[in-house]
Amino acid sequence: MQNLLILADSPEAFRELLRNSLAELLPTTPAATAPDTLLTIPEVCKEFGVSKTTLTEWTKNGIVPFVRLGRRMYFERSQVLEAGRTHKKYQHRKG
User: Fold this and answer.
1) In what order do the strands lie in the sheet with 72-76?
2) 25 domain-assigned
3) Which of 8, 27, 43, 58 is a Cys-bridge partner for 14, taking CB atoms 3.0 to 4.6 Å apart?
4) Cα separation of 41 and 55, whole Å?
């Protein structure tokens, strides 16, 4: 590993140089490549503003995909968003 020499004339300049140096050295992972989080039924209902009954109907009709682990159901955030976008009831109509 290289030695890094930082010279600054004020604390603010030092902080800025340190931030820039760390940004160059540390790898960044974009949010798009981060793993999708699993949500429980109450979390989906709260985050997307739907009732538990509505979510249950959507899962029965195959509108929202889910993962079952034992007796629990989990939903991937991106899949719930995509299901909401493609659901015909919630698409805006022109004309």
Assistant:
1) 38-39, 72-76, 67-69
2) no
3) 8
4) 8
**What residue type is 94 in one-letter code?**
K
Residue 73: pLDDT above 90? yes
pLDDT tens-place string over residues 6-27: 677 888 888 888 788 777 877 6
* Domain-embedded: residue 95: no
Could you give the CA distance from residue 7 to residue 79 in angstroms, rounded to a whole number? 49
DSSP states of 15-73 as a string? HHHHHHHHHHHS----GGGSPPPEE-HHHHHHHHT--HHHHHHHHHTTSS--EEETTEE
- Put residue 28 in one of left, alpha, beta given phi > 0 → left and psi -120 to 50 → alpha: beta
Q: What is the CATH number of the domain that holds 68?
A: 1.10.1660.10
